[in-house]
Structure formats: C-alpha cells, structure tokens
Write a structure and sequence with these properties.
The chain is mostly helical and 193 residues long. It contains 11 helices and no strands. The N and C termini lie far apart (82 Å).
Length: 193
C-alpha cells in the first residue's frame, strides 16, 4: 500500500511539473502569434518590422498577452513617431491597458513626453478619460511634476477639477505638492477659466 502511494505521488508530481513547463514556458519567436511579435518589435524599437506588419494589413489595435495595446506600449517607450504611425493606420488613440485602464495619453503625460502627448492631442485623444484609479492624464502629469505637460493639457481644455477615486482633482494634487511652480501654474490655469 505504501509503495503504491509513493508511485502515485511520484507520477502526479511529474504530471504537475510537465503541466507547469507547458503553461509557463515563453513561446519562441517562431511560435509567437503575429500580434505578439508586433508588440515585441515596438518595445524593441524595430521600426522596419513594425511598419512591415502595419503595411501588410496587421491590426494597429493589437494587444500583448497582458492586455497592453500597441499604442500604449509605444507611448510607454516614448516613441511619438510610432504612436503617429499606429493612428495613421487606424489605431485607436484611446485604447487602454486592460489591467490598469491607462491610455497612451496618460502614459505620455506621466512620463513627461511632450511629443507623445502632442501627437495624441492632435489626433483627438480623449483628455477626460480616467484609468482604474480615476486618474486623468492631467492628474498623472501633476502628480509626476510634469509642468510642461500640465500646461499643454490645460491649453487644450483638460479639466483641473475632475476628481480621481480618492476625491482629489488635479488642482488638489497640485496644491498638496511641494512644487511651488506647479502650484502657481495650476492657480493661473484655474483663474483663467
């Protein structure tokens, strides 16, 4: 009886290990779906490969295994040119990360990339979209101390009084910060409304 139980446990253990290898192994380049390879090419800044994918009819709205859309991935690495190309080929500027709700505009704003923000605003990205925390691109820019982005977003009509899920607005976050120039910028923006 004891010997039979150990044999069963050993067999089950091998099955679990084999199952783990199957599900946890990363696919090789040859096994990777085209959309996933496209996202990897964007992250690796392989411009020729990403353009080939788009020109040959690949979807600019592709997502990776984690639900991150191509346009968010491009904004995350600060590639304004790729963001522009994705939109040119029909990409949705308001696609968001499925896990966090973060859009390309929020990514560009938080990272202080004025060119990514300019491309998205020019292509009518929604400046009022909120992520899973209720934060807008303006709130993210204020919290990260990105004064140029704050000014840029306010100039195109971002609402400094829209609140996140904690009840604080971009204006509130600015007033709570230690950055006097951010406070002054936000006070001026509010007084000009």
């Amino acid at each position: 009886m004891i010997k039979r139980q150990k044999t069963w446990q050993k067999g089950f253990g091998l099955f679990v290990v084999a199952l783990g290898v199957v599900f946890l192994a990363q696919p090789s380049q040859a096994q990777m779906p085209a959309d996933t390879q496209f996202l990897e090419d964007i992250r690796d800044r392989k411009y020729a490969d990403t353009m080939s994918y788009l020109v040959n009819g690949g979807t600019p709205n592709a997502r990776d295994y984690n639900g991150i859309p191509a346009i968010v991935a491009a904004a995350r690495i600060g590639d304004a040119g790729m963001v522009k190309e994705l939109i040119k080929y029909g990409g949705n500027p308001d696609m968001s990360d499925k896990r966090t709700g973060v859009t390309a505009l929020m990514e560009g704003a938080a990272r202080g990339n004025i060119y990514v923000v300019a491309v998205l605003v020019t292509n009518e990205a929604d400046i009022a979209m909120q992520d899973d925390l209720g934060e807008t691109a303006l709130i993210k820019a204020v919290k990260e101390g990105r004064r140029e982005i704050v000014k840029q977003l306010i100039d195109v009509g971002a609402d400094p009084y829209m609140t996140d899920y904690t009840g604080y607005s971009a204006y509130d976050h600015a007033m709570r910060s230690r950055d006097m120039r951010m406070k002054n910028l936000m006070k001026k923006a509010v007084s000009n409304r």
